[in-house]
């Protein structure tokens, strides 16, 4: 069997899979819905993953019944604790996609996607927020990332909820005036915020707090103090996660990479990233927003596990930086 890696980036909002050969060529790729076990349960997650894995095998032209890959590298949102990683590994391994399987948190894939060696710190802020760090000697620092019960602050849903909260308090007089009020009303297409709140209460409109996150950044960028305070708090949290991780691994004085990713941070704009850079104890040019999808990091970790030649990495990265180079139907 040709040695292949089945790379899985399983996020809260989407799942990406890629089948990559040992030379770093993308044989097929597919995207599907988010399938975090924390959100939809383990059984439903596995159904989604199974469907996508079989589809990527079909797109790659593999004969039915042939193992999809030599190795599955699955990096998943919701794999936050070692017990969860092991449960998911056993469940995925039982699917028979490959001879070996590794499951880790999706933040590790982000770190590998943004570095040449998987060493450094990665902070992801998408639907939620998380951070991992890996030292040159292999030591790892990570957070449980279970939401408020584990001390977390941030993520698109949290920020969007803050925008609505500030708008509501500005509307009824408990809070300071803010341009978020008009922006949120316009988002819901109602005459007043009170009307929007009532419709939300009765479930008459679909509402995902993540949808208000871009609006929050737009209003903050225009100079609104209330919105700006939330964005500043996010910067503080991103910096704190990275600083704590660096300190716990004794890397605060080392020129290590800090990788930022997730839909919130990649869409936040230069002002937010520059503010993070200015407050971290590493050279500014070592703090970067990832420029390839996290599934590339999952694939690279899989290629590392199979001992791929160094040339495989630039070939894979080039394919994802130049989407036209990817295989048709991928």
UniProtKB/TrEMBL annotation:
Keyword Nucleotidyltransferase found: no
Matching InterPro entries: ATPase_BadF (IPR002731), ATPase_NBD (IPR043129), Euk-type_GlcNAc_Kinase (IPR052519)
Transmembrane regions listed in the UniProt entry: none
Gene3D superfamilies linked to this entry: 3.30.420.40
Short name of any one Pfam family annotated for the protein: BcrAD_BadFG
Segments forming domain ATPase BadF/BadG/BcrA/BcrD type: 8-302
Keywords in alphabetical order: Kinase, Transferase
Molecular-function annotations in GO: kinase activity
Protein name: N-acetylglucosamine kinase
Organism taxonomic ancestry: Bacteria, Bacillati, Actinomycetota, Actinomycetes, Pseudonocardiales
């Amino acid at each position: 069997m040709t040695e292949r890696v089945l790379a899985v980036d399983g996020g809260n909002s989407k799942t990406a899979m890629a089948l990559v050969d040992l030379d770093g060529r993308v044989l097929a790729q597919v995207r599907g819905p988010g399938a975090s076990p924390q959100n939809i349960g383990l059984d439903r997650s596995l159904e989604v993953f199974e469907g996508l894995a079989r589809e990527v095998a079909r797109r790659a032209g593999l004969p039915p019944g042939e193992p999809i890959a030599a190795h599955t590298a699955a990096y998943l949102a919701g794999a936050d604790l070692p017990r969860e990683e092991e449960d998911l590994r056993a469940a995925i391994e039982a699917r028979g996609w490959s001879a070996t399987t590794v499951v880790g948190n999706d933040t590790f894939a982000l770190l590998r996607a943004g570095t040449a060696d998987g060493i450094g710190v990665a902070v992801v802020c998408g639907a939620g927020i998380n951070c991992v760090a890996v030292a040159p000697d292999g030591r790892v620092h990570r957070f449980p990332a279970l939401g408020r019960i584990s001390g977390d602050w941030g993520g698109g849903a949290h920020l969007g909820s803050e925008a609505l909260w500030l708008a509501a308090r500005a509307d009824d007089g408990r809070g300071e005036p803010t341009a978020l009020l008009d922006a949120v009303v316009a988002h819901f297409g109602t005459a007043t915020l009170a009307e929007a709140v009532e419709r939300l209460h009765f479930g008459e409109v679909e509402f995902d707090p993540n949808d208000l996150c871009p609006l929050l950044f737009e209003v903050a960028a225009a100079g609104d103090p209330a919105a700006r305070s939330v964005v500043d708090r996010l910067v503080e949290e991103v910096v704190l996660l990275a600083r704590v991780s660096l300190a716990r691994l004794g890397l605060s004085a080392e020129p290590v990479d800090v990788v930022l990713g997730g839909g919130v941070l990649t869409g936040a704009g230069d002002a937010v990233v520059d503010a993070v850079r200015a407050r971290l104890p590493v050279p500014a040019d070592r703090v970067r927003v990832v420029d390839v999808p996290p599934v590339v990091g999952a694939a690279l970790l899989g290629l590392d596990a199979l001992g791929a030649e160094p040339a495989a990495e630039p070939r894979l990265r080039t394919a994802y930086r130049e989407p036209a180079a990817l295989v048709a139907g991928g």
